[in-house]
Specification:
Blueprint (H helix, E strand, L loop, with lengths): L6 E14 L3 E14 L3 E5 L6 H8 L7 E6 L2 E2 L5 H7 L3 E4 L3 H4 L6 H11 L8 H11 L16 H13 L5 E5 L7 H18 L2 E6 L2 H4 L5 E6 L2 E7 L3 H4 L3 H8 L40 H5 L5 E4 L2 E3 L6
Parallel strand pairs: 3-8, 3-9, 6-7, 7-8
Antiparallel strand pairs: 1-2, 1-4, 4-5, 9-10, 10-12, 11-12
Helix pairs in contact: 4-5, 4-6, 6-7
Bound molecules: adenosine-5'-triphosphate (ATP) and magnesium ion.
Length: 319
Amino acid sequence: MFHESEVVLEASHIVKQFPASGKRVLTACSDINLHVYKGRTLGIVGESGCGKSTLVRMLIQMDNPTSGKILYHGRDIVQLPKKEKWLNRQNMQMVFQDPLASFNPKMKIIDILTEPLMNFKRLSKDKKEEKAKELLHMVELSEDFLYRYPHSMSGGQRQRIGIARALSLEPEVLVCDEATSALDVSIQKTIIELLVKLQREKNISIVFICHDIALIQAFAHQIAVMYLGHIVEVIPGEAVGTQAAHPYTQALLGALFSINMEQDRAIDSIEGEVPSPLDILEGCPFQGRCGFCSDRCRTEKPKLREIGPGHQAACHRFL
Ligand SMILES: Nc1ncnc2c1ncn2[C@@H]1O[C@H](COP(=O)(O)OP(=O)(O)OP(=O)(O)O)[C@@H](O)[C@H]1O
Ligand SMILES: [Mg+2]
């Protein structure tokens, strides 16, 4: 389904650890391997604190891994000299959850939109207005917004500005970290439709972080499920509903609330607490909450292995 030649960005054995109190170490990402394909969307799902933001910050080089490689078209960008790293940022841009917090509130929309191009000296002052109008048009907003401030716009409109600003540099990879989570459902849908349309037009690769597996399966070509710093399953988006294999992915799907649910069907919840990333477990990270846990799961960490076309799972049940 996905071919090697189409890989744009690759995480290879990425580990990220943070120092914690009492000389302890917090492992936010543990030996992560992932591929981002040309013109495709990789969805990343998992509970709060499982390491999603830490992972994508490393993918776009806002942070360095403790060990491992980030390969952009096969070249390790972790090792690039500072200047080249900065220049490479143009290829990978990010849309944040809260655009208001990421924009300078004293800047008008025309300046917010064109700032990245000005920073990289790719736009002259006399072309600013023309470019900003083009970017507003791209995200289906009126030119009337040019001289307004971000606080005078709705959340959905501000997120369109966030997308236009990120795409102004014509990046090959767009990372959206919970970019629609703060929006109401109907606005969320229009923003995702816009992203899908722009992806088709510009052939960009999108990495989309989201808590909501139901939302992400509607448009992600592949989905990586994260649990406690580990990727536990990678599955084609269209297969999640029927072929999810890892007990954690199944639990996430089981926890979905359905308004068509019959009255006597209880909502499944994922039992147990997520262990702390400070307590490094021997064996499978999901062992404490898994209904299939065996002795082997308590001692041997399952590796992510191919279990079908474009489908990998880290679970001893499939080995
Ligand atoms: N700079 C840091 N220093 C210390 N610990 C950190 C740092 N950044 C993240 N962490 C820890 O790493 C773990 C993963 O955090 P991360 O923000 O990546 O999770 P997340 O999956 O994005 O969560 P959420 O869904 O709530 O955004 C958490 O335990 C967090 O406290
Ligand atoms: Mg996060």
